[in-house]
Design a protein that fits this description.
The complex is a heterodimer of chains A (about 750) and B (about 325).
Chain A (H helix, E strand, L loop, with lengths): L1 E9 L2 E9 L25 H6 L14 E7 L5 E7 L1 H4 L4 E6 L4 E2 L5 E7 L2 H10 L1 E6 L6 H4 L30 H7 L2 E9 L2 E2 L7 E6 L5 E5 L4 H11 L7 E4 L15 H13 L3 E4 L2 H7 L2 E2 L2 E9 L5 E10 L20 E8 L15 H19 L3 H8 L5 H12 L1 H4 L11 E9 L11 E6 L5 E4 L9 H13 L6 E4 L16 H28 L7 E3 L2 E3 L5 E3 H5 L7 E6 L14 E9 L4 E11 L7 H20 L30 E6 L2 E2 L18 H13 L10 H12 L4
Parallel strand pairs in A: 3-14, 12-13, 17-18, 21-22, 28-29
Antiparallel strand pairs in A: 1-2, 1-30, 3-7, 4-6, 4-8, 5-7, 9-16, 10-15, 11-12, 11-14, 16-17, 19-27, 20-21, 20-26, 23-24, 24-25, 27-28
Helix pairs in contact in A: 9-10, 9-17, 13-14, 16-17
Chain B lengths: L4 E3 L4 H9 L3 E3 L5 H6 L7 E4 L9 E3 L5 E4 L4 H6 L1 H6 L1 H9 L3 H4 L4 H6 L5 H4 L41 H7 L3 E6 L2 E6 L22 E7 L7 E8 L10 E10 L2 E10 L6 E2 L1 H7 L6 H10 L11 H20 L3
Parallel strand pairs in B: 1-3, 2-3
Antiparallel strand pairs in B: 4-5, 5-8, 6-7, 6-8, 9-10, 10-11, 11-12
Helix pairs in contact in B: 10-11, 11-12
The chains are: A alpha+beta (about 750), B alpha+beta (about 325).
């Protein structure tokens, strides 16, 4: 073990800390590290391929002899399949297979009933249209509150729809004596907050192209957040050694948490490819994706926030539930995650409904929980007669977030734009500002290996099984290896998303970059040492006297050469080295903060809300690539605005089927809805791993909806406690506030 | 979609013959192809007007009126100086519809002939009065109502999606329809009919009727005023929640004639006659615009989920009238 003294911290909270680390692992970069590439703006290494259409995603694969498959889905929320007529379908032109799938009882609209495979897409379309299914339609319930009612149809006949109460919730377990704290509270605010079901809507839906070789080896191009998990699951399901399964995700069109394992379309592609002895394509279409591809559970959060008249929050308590669809887990809302409120007692439970399966979705539990919590904080501030920003700063102990509030306030113009009297603007358009915070837990981990190969021509290749969900993982790996080799990131080729490479983590939890980045840095150091050794030998100098920068290698006595020429000294097989992800060190902070401020304009005659500006102040340890990081935050903010104002899976209660499964009716924020987004990164030297990096994907979308809702309240004087804030809901809330509405 | 024979005639007469023979009429296909993919329509033959010359342009005639070919794109309408001069609200409405990419393909004829975007109609797994079911599930308990209409919804609660139709109807435009018997002229105001069970299309044209152009009388400076207002949830690329289009003839500050049309509030474009009555004979003022807005909701029978549209109608009519009042031309 080695010991290194490293300057860690943020702004003026800086301390020198001794980090004990493996000898092989370079010492973490401190605040004073001088880096050439890390922290600059580096364009995505695969940006041109993606923008030009050259990138080939799973569904773009066209192996010779490709057949096409599609799943026939149940249109009822609850039904028994009584008859599936496939005989006629099997004799139709081009049809290769038609099979029933799944059990007799279907418990959500969109459940697979049959699957058809044909030699071409047109034959497939005709065949699917010819499938006749008879159902015995059964009672169902698709709304969480209705599912709790006496006599509601049960998803699991052996178990009540109401799941076990889980006091832990997300982001902060129970603490203290909540009842006692409520009794003693000088101020209390109580309200019910509601959020909607949001679908993931990745631009690229779930799906695969599968092909089996004659000797029984499977190659699967799959849109997945974990090639490793899909490889292992397919090996298990199809009874072949994992070594005989290759899963490739070279490019990925988004997942947001809904693609950690195979979906029915992925299994069917593999099964049918084996059965038909042809490569098979099976991707969800947009409607299937909306119906079955996953969603963020809704929530009903009945909460009381209490504290003292001086603005100190002492207790949060209440009840919170939502439906994760057929199951009961994963519906908790992180409404106790911020501010270390000493007494916490929120009962959380999931409610089964006949609505497919909720899945992890970019910061599970957090956007909805923070929407409720930060709304209540504003209500608490109002009750205390205080500026809500002051209440937050009074109660926030997070080492970075407490520094972020004043930065955001200054950049949004809090003092100037905050309406002292909400709704006092002249004319129908009212403006105001609001803010909210977030937290995330994302220093990464694991023991992942990254391979780096340097050839005698100076070409550098980085390999890992990790896939790039779209956040820039490839680019981050290139930057870190380039930093250590003193070359440009564009000179480093990154090959990932292939289960033949060293296993990488699933892309989730904002852990991907910090899980593989430190291993890439270590591999970069090993590669530099390898090149340095041969150059030093040739020059007759000490290897540790060489420097690598600007594509050149320099040594004592004015010796200098290019990186390529230096590599020419390597043996003919070049250099192959690895880096390993080590355990996290005790760094400056184990969590990320993040605050966002929104300025909105609300037309109180039409109920239309426009977000005019968002200031997003975030921290993620060391920012490796400022450009991709800013892009992450932009995306998080846009998705948050979309959640706040637009997105909503709308189910017809009578059938349980979705009436808006299209891009034009499931509204998503577009370019015209995107405000000016001012992204600020706090410069944090964390020391938690050798780069000091943390993840950013999820924190960026946590506070947005809450900040927008708080801004709407400041603009209009009316608090929106339900998402999305549609014109219908805004008008109803305004009418209720005037005392004239329903 | 089901395989079909694609016919590309080069004359209106040939298109009429094909359409009369049962071919589905297609402009650039934005609506029709969606319906065919979902197999709401499964034609054996599709006839398109894309190869008929001369249908894709705007002409300003000597009397100042516009003659607009059915295949003119919304992008062309939005950018046309002639449209801006003769009927500025048409340019405004066209320029706000959908997205730039869609406006480059969407045509005037297609916009007027498109079917409702009601989710219950669009997906065959739902029941739908327009597709032949006895009732409309939008009105049933638990129906998703927010996009639906508030006028004339006793049988079918859907909302008509066209934002151009109210503008043209208010402006007194006339559709010129070719058929085997020759051309006939149908006011855009009379182009649509109430819902009927099993009838998907909203307009009165039948097989063999081909809309070839729309003629729009000029908005005469000093005599006529027009205004347009729509409320969209998204800032762009969204179906309007409510559309209001007005045409007012005023003399010496007093309204002599007025036409007020609404979109997205009824199964077809909706004429707000009570609003027109509230204007005629009265001074043309902002205060009277508000009175007309209140009057425009006469006869509304909103569902619980569409009550907000009543408020939006009042606002768009008032704002469209105020825009007309303030417009210089």
């Amino acid at each position: 073990m080695a010991e290194s003294k490293v300057k860690l911290g943020v702004a003026d909270v800086v301390a020198e800390k001794t980090i004990r680390h493996e000898d092989a692992d370079p010492a973490p970069w401190g605040l004073d590290a001088r880096l050439a590439v890390v922290g600059t703006e580096v364009s995505r290494v695969d940006g041109f391929a993606k923008a030009s259409g050259a990138a080939r995603y799973a569904g773009d694969q066209r192996p010779t002899g490709l057949a096409f498959a599609r799943i026939v889905r149940c249109p009822h929320a609850h039904a028994n399949v009584t008859r599936v007529d496939l005989d006629a379908v099997r004799t139709m032109p081009g049809v290769l297979a038609a099979d029933e799938t799944g059990g007799r009882r279907k418990t959500y609209a969109g459940a697979p009933v049959a699957v058809v495979c044909a030699a071409d897409e047109r034959s497939l379309d005709d065949a699917v249209a010819a499938v006749r299914v008879s159902y015995e339609v059964l009672p169902h319930v698709v709304d969480a509150t209705e599912a709790l009612a006496e006599g509601a149809a049960q998803v699991d006949p052996k178990r009540a729809n109401r799941g076990d109460a889980d006091g832990r919730g997300r982001g902060g377990g129970p603490a203290g004596d909540a009842q006692k704290a409520l009794d003693e509270a000088e101020l209390k605010v109580e309200a019910t907050y509601r959020t909607q079901v949001q679908t993931h809507v990745p631009l690229e839906p779930h799906g695969s192209v599968a092909t089996w070789s004659e000797d029984g080896k499977l190659t699967l191009w799959c849109s997945t957040q974990s090639v490793d998990a899909v490889r292992n699951e397919m090996a298990r399901r199809f009874q072949v050694p994992a070594a005989d399964v290759r899963v490739v995700t070279e490019f990925m069109g988004g997942g947001f948490g809904c693609k950690f394992g195979p979906d029915p379309c992925d299994y069917e592609a593999v099964r049918l490819a084996r059965a038909t002895k042809r490569p098979v394509w099976c991707m969800n279409d947009r409607r299937e994706e909306h119906l079955t591809g996953g969603f963020r559970p809704d929530s009903v959060q009945k909460l009381t926030l209490g504290g003292r008249r001086d603005g100190t929050m002492t207790v949060i308590a209440g009840e919170c539930y939502g439906t994760p669809g057929n199951g009961q887990g994963g519906a908790g809302a992180a409404n106790t995650a911020l501010y270390d409120i000493p007494a916490r007692g929120v009962t959380q439970f999931g409610v089964s409904t006949f609505t497919a399966h909720g899945r992890a979705f970019r910061a599970p539990g957090h956007p909805q929980g923070v929407f409720a919590l930060e709304g209540l904080v504003d209500e608490f501030a109002l009750a205390a007669g205080m500026d809500p920003l002051d209440v937050r700063r009074l109660n926030d102990k997070h080492p970075v977030r407490r520094l972020e509030w004043p930065v955001g306030a200054k950049r949004i113009g809090w003092a100037q734009h905050r309406r002292k009297v909400p709704g006092s603007d002249r004319g129908p358009v009212k403006r105001g500002v609001g803010c909210a915070g977030g937290v995330w837990y994302n220093a990464g981990g694991g023991s992942w290996r990254i391979d780096v190969a340097v050839a005698r021509d100076g070409s550098v290749v980085v390999r890992s099984g990790v896939q790039d969900i779209g956040t820039g993982t490839k680019t981050v790996l290139a930057v870190l290896v380039a930093e250590e080799l003193g070359v440009a990131p564009g000179a480093v080729r990154v090959e990932i998303g292939d289960s033949r490479f060293p296993p990488g983590p699933g892309s989730g939890g904002s852990t991907t970059a910090p899980s593989v980045g430190p291993a890439a840095r270590e591999a970069g150091v090993r590669a530099r040492e390898g090149v340095a050794a041969v150059v030093a030998a040739a020059w007759g100098v000490d290897a540790d006297k060489l420097s690598f920068a600007g594509g050149r290698v320099r040594g004592p006595g004015g010796k200098e050469t290019t990186f390529e020429q230096a590599c020419a000294q390597l043996p003919s097989e070049g250099l192959s080295v690895s880096g390993v992800r080590r355990k996290n060190y005790e760094g400056f902070s184990g969590t990320c903060g993040g605050v966002q401020f929104a300025r909105v304009a609300v037309d109180v005659e039409t109920g239309v809300v426009r977000v005019e500006k968002v200031v997003a102040v975030h921290d993620a340890g060391r920012i490796v690539d400022t450009l991709t990081a800013r892009s992450q935050v932009n995306g998080g903010v846009i998705q948050g605005i979309s959640y706040a104002l637009f997105e909503e899976k709308r189910l017809d209660r009578a059938s349980g089927d979705m009436v808006n499964p299209t891009f034009d009716t499931y509204r998503i924020a577009g370019m015209a809805d995107t405000p000016e987004i001012d992204v600020v990164f706090m410069d944090v030297a964390n020391g938690i791993n050798n780069v000091g990096m943390m993840g950013l994907g999820e924190p960026a979308t946590v506070p947005t909806a809450a900040a927008v809702a708080n801004a709407v309240a400041n603009a209009t004087g009316v608090r929106m406690r339900e998402l999305p804030m549609t014109p219908a809901r805004v008008l109803a809330a305004l009418a209720a506030a005037r005392g004239g509405g329903k | 979609m089901k395989a079909f024979r694609y016919e590309r005639p080069t004359t209106v007469e040939a298109a009429v013959r094909a359409h009369a023979g049962g071919a589905l009429l297609k402009a650039n296909g934005i609506d029709v192809l969606d319906r065919m993919k979902e197999r709401l329509d499964q034609p054996d033959r599709v006839v398109t007007l894309v190869d008929v010359p001369g249908l894709d342009r705007v002409e300003r005639r000597p009397d100042g009126s516009l003659s607009i070919g059915a295949m003119t794109t919304l992008a062309t309408l939005a950018a046309s100086a002639d449209v801006a001069a003769a009927c500025p609200t048409l340019a405004t409405a066209a320029g706000q519809a959908a997205s730039p990419a869609l406006r480059n393909r969407a045509t005037l004829g297609g916009n007027l002939g498109q079917h409702t975007r009601c989710g219950y109609y669009r997906f065959a797994s739902f029941r739908c009065f327009k597709r032949g079911d006895a009732d409309c599930p939008v009105q049933a308990p638990g129906g998703v109502q927010e996009p639906a209409g508030i006028f004339g919804i006793d049988l079918c609660a859907c909302a008509h999606p066209s934002s151009l139709a109210p503008v043209l109807a208010a402006g007194g435009a006339v559709a010129v329809v070719a058929s085997a018997k020759g051309e006939r002229r149908v006011p855009v105001a009379a182009l649509y009919e109430p819902p009927a069970r099993g009838k998907a299309s909203d307009w009165v044209l039948g097989e063999g009727d081909v809309l070839v152009r729309v003629e729009v009388p000029p908005v005469v400076a000093g005599s006529h005023r027009v205004g347009y207002e729509e409320v969209r949830q998204k800032a762009a690329f969204d179906w309007p929640l409510v559309v209001g289009a007005v045409w007012v003839a005023a003399r010496d500050g007093v309204v002599a004639d007025a036409r007020v049309w609404l979109g997205a509030v009824a199964p077809s474009p909706w004429r707000a006659e009570a609003a027109e009555k509230a204007l005629v004979g009265k001074p043309f003022t902002a205060a009277q615009a508000a009175v007309a807005g209140e009057a425009a909701v006469a006869g509304a029978t909103p569902l619980p989920g569409t009550a907000y549209k009543v408020e939006l109608v009042k606002v768009v009519v008032r704002r469209a009238l105020v825009a007309a009042l303030e417009r210089r031309s």
